[in-house]
Amino acid sequence: MASSDSFPPEGLSPSEDTVECRLYPLIDQEHETEQELCVRAMEYSQFLKELTCDYIWYHEDLRISVSRSGCVMVCVTFRDGIEDEWYLVSLMCRLTETFADLVVSISDGDGEFLLIEAAHYLPLWLKPETSTNRVFIHGGCVHIIPKPANPAEILHYPVATPTLQQALSLVRSDTHTEASSLIQEAINQKIKQQIHSPHFTHCYVPMRVAHVIHHNRQLVAAAVHAMCDRDVIDMKACRKMTTFPVDKCIMSGVIFTRRLYAQLLREQFQAPRNAGFHHYGSGTAYDLGIKLTCGFEMLMSSLRRPVAAENVSDSDPLWLQFISSLQQKGYFQGQLEGSKLYNELKEKAKYFYKESMVEDNRGPRLIHAECVQHIINDLPVDKHQLEQQNLPPPDSDDWLEITPAQLDHMIYEAQGVTKGAGLDSVVDGMTSFVDHVSSFEGVEFPSDTAGVTLNPDQFMSQLRDMLQEDEEELLSDDDITCSSNSSDEGEQEGEGLLHHVMQQMDKELVGTTMAQSFDHAQEEGLQEQQEGEGLQQQQEEGELRPVDIDFNLVKNLLESYASQDGGAGPTSNILQSMGIKLPEQ
């Protein structure tokens, strides 16, 4: 990856369905940067592996590598599994809590997606074009490097885009870079919402399939994708079932994610007649078993010949430096060179070195197929353990079916909409909405934080006084008195003229249909049957009663809402943006 001083590097933004994390540890200048990064990457890999051992990634596992730009890269391609992206955010928070010197920058195809989730609580200056090298994760929290708010902060916080080293130094040393509690809460709430729920069910599968799943549950996702993304060549592989013959089958317990379970359950599939599934019974367990077994067979069809990463030579200088760094860190636990435990640790280090330092062009499907091949060839099958499983009952899949009312509730809850709001809430919300500042970028909802407020009338009055100060000094006391008296008289005359003009306009409107298009305020004790007489009397007298603004607002909104016939429209959209849901009736 090309070197860059910003994140993401210019021209190398992540793809649409990939999230990338850049990990910046604090490295002592006395150590070789690349070798030290390899050691740190291995520490991070072991820590993340412990946290994710029971997690099923939707598309592929974490990819950890050392970048030539001086950081450790952690990437995940999540495709439709958006929960994997936010799970990675939670992992980065826990990682930075454990490694206090670590600073992480994270982005996807949309850029700084953390800011997108907390958009309602961001400072006004923070936009995509001003967020470069300003948003990080450190100490388990999101940090945003602020812009100077006063002249004293200009020497501390950069006005322009900070360099990467400036940004990392500020995040590590300045506690004021930690984002506000509202931003933290919005991101934490999103993480909680996206936590996936596992789904346990029964599948009738060949013993070899149960053996593979027992050793690596992540391969279930690979088999589901192979089934759902199958082509004609994949279907040919299911005619013979050479890798997973269906002669010895057992009822096995399989853990899916809810997304993977729904995909496999709803997938329409008819197995070839000569595949050997004719002795299968009927039911969900048998249907899922057929699809899962064929998915594994399709996965193995992509494995033409074993393809491994480039072998690491023991004379490779970079490899020797990497081993030397591990020895200094105590990785080998004091074991003698050549001992069994020493060789096992060395093989693990060599595997990590190949995965992180040697470029690998294999796709996830081929990597998963190689993993299945390794389990089949190198790990013995414990038939007794697989056959003697006391399976608990499968989880209920009632969550697959939801009613329209439940769907509406989920939408309103996600949008923060108050269902069944009263008419008073409609009036108050609409009044507040009209009072907000708007521009071509949309309506600006002011935050609750105290800021500088400007009274325009007071400001203009003070400005006028400043401009007239010199002139007033030249006037005598009598002139000032006359001037003030004439000014007061002029203001009174102006107000009287305005009132007279308004009265004339009211008289002109009395005889038009405009006067009848609004509902007017009612006097207390006025009966409904007197409305017609009251209007006629107004026309004769040439006067109009005051218009009931709130009543007309609610009336027009309800008429507009009724004309939508339950569909989307301007009234429902405006009210939902204010967190208001009108009652059904």
Fold and architecture overview:
This protein has 585 residues and is α+β, with helices and mostly antiparallel strands. It has 3 domains: 18-193, no CATH class; 198-306 and 380-399; 406-446 and 456-516 and 535-563, no CATH class. Helix content is 47%, strand content 10%. It has 22 helices and 12 strands. The strands form 4 sheets. A 6-stranded antiparallel beta sheet has the order 2-3-1-4-5-6. A two-stranded antiparallel sheet has the order 7-8. Strand 2 and strand 3 (71-77) form a beta hairpin. Helix 1 (33-51) crosses helix 11, helix 7 (219-228) crosses helix 10 and helix 10 (284-301) packs across helix 13. The chain is flat, with a radius of gyration of 35 Å. Residues 1-12, 305-309, 446-454, 474-478, 480-484 and 524-531 have low confidence and may be disordered.
Strand order of the largest sheet: 2-3-1-4-5-6
Average of pLDDT: 79
Query: Using only CA atoms, what is the Rg?
Result: 35 Å
Fraction of residues in β-strands: 5-15%
Helix/sheet category: alpha+beta
Largest sheet: 6 strands, antiparallel
Number of alpha- plus pi-helical segments: 22
Count up the domains: 3
Compact overview of the structure:
The protein has 585 residues and is an alpha+beta fold. The protein is 47% helix and 10% strand.
